[in-house]
Amino acid sequence: MDxxxxxxxxxxxxxxxxxxxxxxDYGVGILLPFIAKNDQDRRMxxxxxGPFWDGNEVWILTAGGAIFAAFPNWYATMFxxxxxxxxxxxxxxxxxxxxxxFRSKDANPTWRSLWxxxxxxGSLVPSLVWGIALTNLVRGLPIDATMTYMGGFFxxxxxxxxxxxxxxxxxxxxxxxxxxxxxxxxxxxxxxIAITKKVAPVTTGVVLLFTLAGYFMVDSFTPxxxxxxxxxxxxxxxxxQNRFGAAFITNSLGIALTNLxxxxxxxxxxxxxxxxxxxxxxIYSASSxxxxxxxxxxxxFVFVPIVLMYQGWTYWVFRQRISREVxxxx
Length: 330
Hints:
By secondary structure, the chain is mostly helical.
């Protein structure tokens, strides 16, 4: 395996980890106004992700850094082409992060409602945009021979990409609902279970539709999407049996396989040109020098295990359910 392939795999792993972990994070934020009936409920819901949300975002920061260093031409073309979409998502994420810190600073209901709304919007927008962005990578974009994006903002809003956005949105909502079923108690738990059982079949249908659309609208679309649908069908069954721990695992694997379907359909490309297949960016035409990849590999093998162990320890320490007897910080 050469280093170009290795770094492509590492980028895929980082995106997969991000979607699994930040997926429940976004899902909880989206469900906040629907599952919580009063301020105490909202504080309990937010506390379920309080220790995790900022650590989960490190995965995408690392993925972005890895693309910048390992595949600078990919980074330049993608971030320039998706500029407005990414700025929109950045503003949403800033509002979301500020909301987590600011909502508890004043007991005024209007103040808290404002920041709760920011949490909802700041979770909804990225959930849509990530699916739209990744689907556009594999569907194809107007990229010329100089690796320059020739389209505009509305070029990204094609039917296939919008379906991809709905797919990530549905997967993240389901991930968040299952997570809340594992982390809450009493009436909140009952509501989380009810939402999970309603959302799971819908999510399975959306992922099935996305997979079928991929076969007709994307070249080299891999069959892993079918396995993702099978896992989501298992999630539906598990939620009906109230086995939410197992359902979280199967849904996480479904997210992983959906993400892997997109990236394997790309490989060895990283961005597909709809103008000329020969102008598509690949892991070789978009990469840094071999020496840069070598140094990055050595650094990654030292620090990535440390980060994984620390984050795993965090999840272990804060593994208990949130109840009304637990101190509510947010």
